[in-house]
Design a protein that fits this description.
rod-shaped, single chain
């Protein structure tokens, strides 16, 4: 790697300050990091969905061991009471 601090100033000014500037047109590091983390989370979610590790759908809202017929009867009774 080249030591930029020892590079002489092209203007002939030998003050020890380098006039070499870095390009500021690149993507900031935090944007790249955020994008990588977002992609990892999305890929993890897709993989979990494909292997069936995350259940979803209307069946999640029915209590386990509950009879669907009882839920329908309760819903109809509540609607009739209004």
């Amino acid at each position: 790697m080249t030591d930029l601090s020892s590079t002489p100033d092209p203007n002939g000014d030998d003050t020890g300050a380098s006039s070499v500037r870095r390009s500021t047109t690149g993507t900031p590091r935090w944007v790249k990091l955020f994008g990588i983390i977002t992609l990892i989370v999305i890929l993890l979610f897709v993989i979990l969905q494909l292997i069936g590790a995350v259940e979803h759908g209307p069946g999640q809202h029915i209590p386990s061991g509950g009879d669907v017929g009882e839920l329908i009867w309760l819903f109809v009774a509540l609607q009739a009471a209004k």
